[in-house]
Each structure stands twice: as structure tokens, then as C-alpha cells.
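Please complete every field before forwarding. Incomplete forms are returned to the sender.

SECTION A: IDENTIFIERS
Entry label: holo-420
Bound molecule: fe (ii) ion
Molecule representation: SMILES string

SECTION B: INPUTS
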Amino acid sequence: MTVKKDNKFMKISKINRYLLFAGLALFLIFGHARADGNTLNVFPERIVLNLTQTPYNSQAVTWRTQKMGTSPRAQIIRVSEFSSLESTPKIFSARTSAVDLDKKTTVYHHSVVFNSLEPNVLYAYRVGDDQHFSEWNQFITASEKLKSFTFLYFGDIQNQIQSMCSRVFRTAFQKQPDAGFWLFAGDMVDNGDDDKEWKEFFNAMGWIPRTIPLMLLPGNHEYPDRRFIPLEDYKISKLWRPHFTLPENGPKDLEETVFSFEYQGVCFVMLNGNELIEKQAKWLEKILSKNRQHWVIVSIHQPVYSISKRRNRTDFQKFFVPVFDRFSVDLVLQGHDHAYSRTFPLRNNQRVPDKEKGTVYVISIAGPKFYPISSRYDHLMAKTGSREPLFQSIRVDADTLHYTSYNIMKQVYDSFEIHK
Ligand SMILES: [Fe+2]
Ligand SMILES: [Fe+2]
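SECTION C: PREDICTED COMPLEX
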């Protein structure tokens, strides 16, 4: 390529050069201020899909704006009809809640539940208001009946969320781009009331939660530290419920922290290990006694058989384990101990004889903080260890559940199968 000298540029006067440099300096100053978030962002951010109780016919989406726009809403259309002139997107008005982050800053969380959807259909949606819309995103609804699918499960994120955990999320997405949803077993952040940590969480995830739904339950770090506050102030972070739209079918006072949902032949139950354990055990019994799904998977943050030296939740063994045993829960997914463990199939707090039915309890960790391991329950453990971040891919077929834990190099760290 021939490069021509631009004589006009060569003739720029000194004054013009000063103006050019001044303009560049202003751009750098104000451009930087915007990137730091000093200027209000009027566009939807933190857009996240969550599954409803019935993901084959509805889908929840939540987003946040730093300013209140006019008529917050979402639009949705089947992808197959997107380019057809006769089809127009359906509009769903949003529910909005204002959240005061501090005395000077209020933000607005909006949510919509798209209903009357068709099973196993690819939809496009966007969220926004009169003037500002997000990009169009896509999701696929679940099938109504039992059908093979894969979901991902993550233990605690909690620390160095953006700098270290982004790689875990990206590797997980590369490994399983078609996961039905991602399940988080609590402690996504270190301080649930710190909006900056939630910002890191959403930055680390990028656009993934706009297309793959997240299902989450709270860990102890989404609650205040119980040692330093009066009992009446011990409540889920005020940032939890506005950020997500989770099923509200749990016991009273535990809405969106305890719930169940059905996904292609699996009954999932999300429990809250922070409070009202006995009440949850009674609710769980009711839910599982009505269950018609082929598989049952429970998730709870604090482990039933802890591998941490400082912890041992005997109340879970007293209240939850008899219910897990009675209704043959297949798998329990946990976090909290910042290490990895997987039990043999258990019943009544004991290892079951080979080939007998039992519940497998897993603890995993996705973040960069690790705790030493206790040998208290070594007699129940098929595997313990790990000082590396992991993510788990779980494929559920009609007769077999295939579980694989990967490290960030996509190497298999642990794997097993459960057969029906
Ligand atoms: Fe944790
Ligand atoms: Fe925890």
C-alpha cells in the first residue's frame, strides 16, 4: 500500500494543535469518569435470567437501571418469527423496586416474568424503557417432560470475584455452552450488602446470565455476620431479592431464598442454611411428598457433613437427613467449606452397602480461597481435597446422572454416576 503524505495535516497551525490536544485531554478526563461509573448509566445493566417454578412455560428476567426511566418493560418474540413482518414482539410491563444504596444513591431494579411460553422454543427478548433498550438476547425454554439436559453447579465464588472468578465462568461456558442453567450454592459475594461486589459478580459473568438462567441460594455471606448484630437485624441482604426473580413457593418469610422448581424430569429444591431450619424441613417434606419428577436434587450452602475443622451442622443431620432418606434424594449440592468433598451414597448418616440406594453429598468451591480439611467424616467420603477452583457439569438422563467436576484447565477432577 502506498502512503501519501497529507499536506493539509502538515499545515495545521499551532492554535489548532493546542485545540486538538485540549479536546483529547477533555475526552480522556470525562471518558474515564464515565467508565468509573461517575456518570449515571441510563441503560439496563445486570440483566439476569432466572428459572420459574415451571421453566417450560415461563421465564423470569431482572435488570437494573441507575435512573428511573418511563414505562420499564421487556419485549419477547420467538426467534423463528423475528424477521417476519407480521410478527411483533409481545410486551410485558416490569415491576420496579427502588433500592437506596446509600443516602445519596438510589437504583432501580426491574423484573418481568414472561408467561404463556411454549416448551423447548428459542425466544429473543430485550429489556428497557421508553428510550433505552438492551440488546436482544436469547434463551430456550425447557421441555415439559423428562428429557436429557446438563446444568452447571458452582461452589463459593466470594473472593476476588472479577479478577479471579471470571476465568472459571468463561472456562465453564466454553466447556458447556448449552447448559440449561447454572446453579450457585451460595456465597457469591463476601459482603451481600456491598453493591460493588455484586457489580464484580455481574462483570465477571458478562453476558452469560442474559442467555443462561442462574439459580441461586444465599450463603452466610449474603446475610450479615450474626456475631455482630442483634437477632432482629439478622435478615437476607437488601440487595438479594431486587437482583433476582426466583420462585416464591418457599415457606413464609423465606421467599426467594427457599424454593423448588422442576426441570425436565428433575425436582430441584433450594434450601437456606442460615435460618428457620426446622420450618424448612417441614416444608421440604410437603414438597417431596407431592413430587412426581424422576430425580430429586437438593442444594444448600452449609454442608450436612462438613469437611471444615470449625464446623459441624448436626441440626441438618437431625432435621434434613431423615427427609432426604425418606424421599430418596439423589444428590445434595453444597458450598461453604472452601474445599472439595464427595460422599459415598449415604442413608441415616451412614454409608449404604454397595448397590443400595443412598444420597450423595458434594461440597465444591469455585473461588480462590481455600480452608484446611478435617478428617471428621473421612469414613463417609469417596473423595476429599482440592486447593483449586472447580466447576461441575451434571448431565441428567432418564436412567443415569453423570457428574463431572472440572478444574480451570478443563481437566476432570472428580466424576461419578448415579443409576436409577
Ligand atoms: Fe464461603
Ligand atoms: Fe459460607
